[in-house]
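Hi support team,

I've been running sequence recovery on a batch of backbones for a student project. Most finish fine, but this one hangs at about 90% for roughly twenty minutes before it completes. I'm not sure whether the input is malformed or the queue is just slow. I've pasted the structure tokens below so you can try to reproduce it. Let me know if you need the job ID as well.

Thanks,
M.K.
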């Protein structure tokens, strides 16, 4: 999500994530005629053991992260995985050079 909204306390991390999105767009366009799809998935706050560490780094709590999510809860790893399964499937054959935000409608993204 840092590539979609940025974080004041993590400028280097946000810059790298923006770079990945730019690379995804450029490489997706470059390889589109070769029928190679290049996409990125930007998961929102997801319930994993790492979440507590990340919330400490950006100076927020998981409760305040949930307030920013339109669906009112954090994502689950399997929900992010389903996004990945879809984007690599034939059902998404027209999707390339794009970023899929699997974030539950996270505000500011």
């Amino acid at each position: 999500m840092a590539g979609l909204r940025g974080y004041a306390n993590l400028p280097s991390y946000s810059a790298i994530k923006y770079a990945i999105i730019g690379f995804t767009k450029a490489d997706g366009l470059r390889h589109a005629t070769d029928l190679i799809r290049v996409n990125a998935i930007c998961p929102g706050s997801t319930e994993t053991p790492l979440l507590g560490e990340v919330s400490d780094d950006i100076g927020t709590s998981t409760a305040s992260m949930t307030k920013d999510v339109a669906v009112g809860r954090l994502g689950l790893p399997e929900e992010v995985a389903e996004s990945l399964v879809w984007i690599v499937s034939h059902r998404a054959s027209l999707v390339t050079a794009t970023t899929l935000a699997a974030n539950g409608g996270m505000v500011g993204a």
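--
Follow-up from support: It reproduced on our side and the slowdown came from queue contention, not your input. The helical segments are 2-5, 11-31, 50-57, 62-67, 77-87. No action needed from you.
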